[in-house]
Amino acid sequence: MNIEKNQIDALNYKVSISIAADDYAEPLRKQLNDLRRRADIKGFRKGMAPLSLIQRLYGDQALYETVNRLVSDSLNGFIRDEKIRIVGEPLASEDQPQLEWKAGNDFTFNFDLAQTPELSFEVGGDDKIPYYEINITEAAKKEMKKNLLQQYGSLQEGSTAKENDYIIADIENASGHKAEGVYVAISSIAEAARGMFVGLKAGDKVTVDVNEAFENEADRAAMLKVDRKDLPSLDPNFTFTVVNVKTFVAAKENQETWDKMYGEGNVTTPEQFEEKIVEQIRSDHTQQANYRFAADARKHFMDKAAVELPEAFLKRWLVYANDGKYTAEQVESEFPAFIEDFKWQMVRGYIMGKLGLKVEDADIREAAESYVAYQYAMYGMGNVPRNLIESAAKGVLEDENQVRRLEEQVEDNKTFAALREKCSVQTKKISEDKFRELK
């Protein structure tokens, strides 16, 4: 057996493995004998069929498996002995010769291998990364208050429909298809037809082509109370008779509203309400600032590491590894995002090793519980019992894709938190407008 290595450049190798007949003769003999012992062939007692018959029945398969096992073991041993930081997996070279699978032949296998570069950089006080503190302005507080009161507002009886109002109408076309008590958000009507509804009041009628006025088929079918497949058969000209108008009114700034927002008795004065508003703005600003710090830190260390990867090899490997799910053209179009993420994984892994950071099972479990709590909060459920969160988190942790996503998130969080401690973080006060202008 002979292995030849040709290092194309710092990251790419071509490896040739030659297997002579003598190299596989004894392993092949042992495999055929093993097949004979296990063979249950009609006309012979189990394990007593002639070896010549076993050779004729299973010889090609045994030869293929024996030689490929030798090649795999040799290649893995070569990678281990040469300490190659393998990326992806070895690929058959494009110049691989055609093989004739016949016992007694010699075989040559050519492989392309690629490795990742060895990273080496320091992490510490010489790394200067900005951290932005966003100023809280009176305008921001006013806007937050307005949004909160809108959020806790309600639909009330209106008189004349405006663009952000709703109408409740009975509708009917000339064929007699009708639907009663239909809610229509005027803002959802196509712009060209919206003006026909603005200004309507109870008792008014308007006839419109619903295909033009309500462009979303699913919404249109729900409004007309028909299956989506039946829409083409309907006369689209419907008369809307307004039953009443509903207008959205923001909540009033009073005790009832504060109790709904923060729990009974937790806020009792306008001053305390403003403090809560400032807390929420500060929390939002902190999230934005942390996100920006993470982006700046990532770019800083990506630039510092200057990672070079065997991109041509990786493109070939991605097509091969996805087993026909992606064409070479699809891989090419998505490759820039993939390669940036791949490089960051390398840089992040190096930083974590450098700083002694580890991800424990408890970290993943905590991240799963936080994710579940966030999902509940999105549906307005802010005080979910602990046992429900833990139960839902267990379900999340049974999904391998979710676990991988959580691991990535935890690794990022630990890395960026450590970098804020280790690097020279330069705090900069900035206005919201200037912060939004940052590239």
Give the structural class.
Answer: alpha+beta
By DSSP (H or I, 4+ residues per run), the number of helices equals 14
Element order, helices and strands? EEHHEEEHEEEHEHHEHHHHHHHEH
What is the general shape? extended
Low-confidence stretches: none
- Largest sheet data: 5 strands, antiparallel
- Strand percent estimate: 15-25%
Termini distance?
57 Å
Helix content bin: 40-55%
Q: Quick one: how many beta strands?
A: 11
Rg, rounded, reads: 34 Å
Question: Tags for this entry?
Answer:
5-stranded antiparallel β-sheet, 439 residues, 51% helix, alpha+beta, 4-stranded antiparallel β-sheet
Give a quick precis of the structure:
This protein has helices at 21-38, 51-82, 138-151, 191-194, 210-213, 217-224, 255-262, 270-305, 311-321, 328-355, 361-378, 386-397, 400-422, 432-437, and strands spanning 2-7, 12-19, 91-92, 107-114, 128-134, 154-158, 166-173, 178-185, 205-209, 237-249, 424-430. The protein is of the alpha+beta class. Helix 3 crosses helix 8 (270-305).
Describe it for me?
By secondary structure, this protein is an alpha+beta fold. It is 51% helix and 18% strand. The chain contains 14 helices and eleven strands. Helix 9 packs across helix 10 (328-355).
Topology:
Elements: E1 2-7, E2 12-19, H1 21-38, H2 51-82, E3 91-92, E4 107-114, E5 128-134, H3 138-151, E6 154-158, E7 166-173, E8 178-185, H4 191-194, E9 205-209, H5 210-213, H6 217-224, E10 237-249, H7 255-262, H8 270-305, H9 311-321, H10 328-355, H11 361-378, H12 386-397, H13 400-422, E11 424-430, H14 432-437
Parallel strand pairs: 5-11
Antiparallel strand pairs: 1-2, 2-4, 3-4, 6-10, 7-8, 7-10, 9-10
